[in-house]
Amino acid sequence: MIIWNILFKRVASLRLYAGLLVLTAGACSYPASRIDTASLEYLVGQKLMLDLRYFCPQQPPEQVCREPLLQLPDALAEVLRRGHIGGVILFADNIQTSGQTMTLIDAMQQVMRHAGLPPLLIAIDQEGGRVARLPADMLVRFSGNMALGASYMKYDTALATQVAELQAQRLRQLGFNVNFAPTVDVNINPLNPVINVRSYGESPQLVAQLGQASVAALQQHGVASALKHFPGHGDTLVDSHVGLPRVDHPRSVIDAVDLLPFRQIIDSASPPALLMTAHIQYPQLDSTTFTTDDGREIIVPATMSRTIITDLLRGDMGYQGVVISDALDMAGVAQYYSPLQATLATFAAGVDIALMPFKLRNQSDIEQFWLFQQQLVSALEQQSRPELEQSLARIAALKQNFPPRVDDSHSLTARIEAFKARDRALELSLENTLAEAATTLIYDRGALPLKQHHWHWLMPDSLRCQAALNALAKASPQTSADCISLAHLPSQPSASYWRDDAVIIVGDITPQHSLVELGGMDDIHAARPRASVQARQHWLLQALADREQVVVYATLRSPYSATEFSNYAHVATASFDYSTEVDADGVARSPALDALVQALLSNQWSGTLPVTVSLPAELLQQ
Description:
Elements: H1 18-27, H2 40-46, E1 48-51, H3 74-82, E2 87-89, H4 98-114, E3 121-124, E4 126-128, E5 131-132, H5 145-155, H6 158-174, E6 178-179, H7 204-220, E7 224-230, H8 251-258, H9 260-266, E8 274-277, E9 289-291, E10 297-299, H10 306-316, E11 322-324, H11 331-334, H12 339-349, E12 354-355, H13 363-381, H14 386-401, H15 409-420, H16 424-438, E13 440-444, E14 454-459, H17 462-475, E15 480-485, E16 502-508, H18 515-518, H19 533-544, E17 550-555, E18 571-574, E19 581-582, E20 588-589, H20 591-602, H21 617-620
Helix pairs in contact: 1-14, 2-13, 4-15, 5-16, 6-7, 6-16, 7-9, 12-13, 16-20, 17-20
């Protein structure tokens, strides 16, 4: 069956909304529109958010383009203008310095301004923790959502608010008006490969409260929040970047767990301006199937489900904001749909904006894009448009509520200088506060505080080794240490390696990196070959067997892995963060490791586990 053929009844043109669109442009100091806002070409363009991550204008189409787009070429300016494009998402590759980023964003907005078109939505994935696109010298990563969940018992929602406020202030200064955050998936699956510490925790109420605080803080400071991933990605074993996940919860669990944070935040005093869909199957919400090109019957993903997007989200839950798809180039969709089919099916479901529906990497892609756009127009022109008109009005209202920064050359220069002079110390202080607040003791068999004169570190890679050694040198200069990187597993150390007066500290970053941390599907080529989780844990279990030294198992990402080492480690800790940066002096720095070292030496712990870690009975009784 062809899902997109369930679109709308024929009615009058879009001229009803032209006045609102001109008003939106005027609020951003844009000239009156010279564009036919009643045309389907205009409507389709406004409903697309493009990825301009790489562009190679002279490269043959058969070659893979990896040249980051750092300034706007004329060819892509013409795509924005002629395509009436509604938004753009930027990645870390597009962001080199603050001045370059602000100039790139301003150039795109000026194209729209001079064409009499509405301003662009300029979006970014700046969740913090595992997912952060800005370099650390422009905005610190912070420790992410599960760290905020661990801080909740001590700080309530205060740190979540402060982090979101700083994120919004910096993003707004740079020219972004949309942040794809926060993630309010309730992580109830310890093996979840893509969410885990991107979630605040396993309690729906905790997730809702922290998510609501983050949404409010982002939007109060001029950045539209995109709540994700609806209807919930917290209980999956598949990363939707590489496959199509499925959640088989009964409806009662869906309502009490998966949907609760979305419903509560939608009903709050500061509902999210946008909501992002998930490429995920929910058969208890919609068991409709479609037939793939190779004849398979597949349950429709939530992004393409009219029952989930229109009936549930808009009808039952009363959401009035803009719905945006997750990236349509992800394998959870792209393995079943062509770009045209995916975009049409997304619109048919009731989604307002298709995110990354078509790659633009070279001149050939641009030529194909015009065909793609015309095919979209042709598929829609035989159908009536009341829902499309409503969708366009929502997008227009979003742009009016979160207008961009558009400056002349003098004020842009002043804004660039102001960003460089921002209060960097405030960011670093809050980063350290969150890292300390999140550092959590999972269990201790009486080994703390550490008094050993030598520390053997076993860390996920050489950068984490450097940061761990630096953290210990700052906190306890008299303590000696060494470190083995487990990125590529070495041969087993001889028995003489382990000093009798030493403590062994294992830093673990289970699960493996997801494509979302790197950026998306374009990063499959860049995923560094590392020892697998299984190989690394097997090596560690052999290395730690029958050791007499005190062993500390420090989870630097997901805390669930402490279960596997509960018979080997005297102490287990959780930091929820492994972020490490190299400063201008070449020194590796990690607030999470700094906080961990301090806690191991002092036995002072601020965090509380926001998820359940399975442990032996004697440890649960502590």
